[in-house]
Known about the structure:
By secondary structure, the protein is α+β, with helices and mostly antiparallel strands. The chain contains four helices and 14 strands.
Amino acid sequence: MKALMTAALLINGLAVAGPAAAATTMKVWTQSVANKVQPTTAPTAKASIALEGGRRSVEAYQIVVHASGGALTGVNMTASDLSDGQGHTIHRTAISFFREAFIDFTGVKVTGGNKPVPASSPTHDGRIPDPLIPFFDPYASTAKHVGAPFSVDAGLNQPVWMDVAIPANAVAGVYQGKVTVTAAGQPSVETPVSLTVWNLTLPDMRTVTTHFKMSEDIFINFHRGIYQCSGNSCWLSSSPKARTLVKRYEEMAHQHRIDTAASFVPDRGTDCSPPTASYWSSYDARLAPYMNGSYWSDKVPTGR
Length: 304
C-alpha cells in the first residue's frame, strides 16, 4: 500500500523527501597555546586573537577550524599586515602558520606521567596535537605547499598554530590586523588580530644557562640515510645529509633562544687516556663556529 501511495505521488509530480541533510558550515574559534585542542574538543565562542611581547620575540596563538554538519575541504589561512594606525606596519611575512598533526595515544601505556590519554580527556579522545606542519616548505627555493590546504572531517576540529615574529625595529604600540580563513564552498571568516609591542628589545645573546640535549637516537628513529651501523649498534653519521638535517633542528631551536648540545663534535670514545693535542685541536675547530656565531644563520653565538 505504501509503495502504491509513493508511486501515485510521483505520478502526480510530487517528490517524497527524506529528512533534510544538515548543511555544512565552517566555525572558526581561537585558543591560547596553553591548551591543547583535540579533534573532539568543544568549540568556544572566542573568535579573536590578542598577543603582546617585546621586539625580537615570537608570540603564538591557535586558530581552530571546526566542521559542522559535514566535512570541509581546501581549508587555508592568510594573514594581513598589522598596522598601528600611525604609519607603522609589521609585514604579513612575520606571521607563519602550522597545521597541528595528531598522535593517537589510545591504548599506549608507558611508565610515568600523570595525564593518561584518553582517560584525562574531557571527551575521552586519545588524539593529542603535537607535530607542527608548516603551511609552506621553509627550505624550498620556491613556494611549496605542505601543511595547507587541508581537510577537516565532519564534527571535528583542526587547530592551526600561528607564530608572530616581532621585528627588532618594530615601534612600540598596538597593531591590528586579521587572519582570513577560507574553505571550498564556504564563505570566508575573518579573525581579528591585536598585537601589543612592548617598548623593549630582547637581547640576541642568551643570558640564561640551559641544557637541552638533542638525542641522536631520535634522529635515527625518524629519518633514513643519516646513520651507520655495526651489528646492533647504530650512530649518527657525518654525511652532508645528516649534517643538514641536524642543523635544521638546531636552527629552529636557536631561533627560539634554545641552544642544544653541539653535534658532530669529536668523541673521545672509551679510551681513558688523556686527550692528545691533536684531539683538542679538532675539538676546538668543530666547536668554534658555535661559540663565535658563524655556525648560525643569525650569527648570534651559542649561549649554552
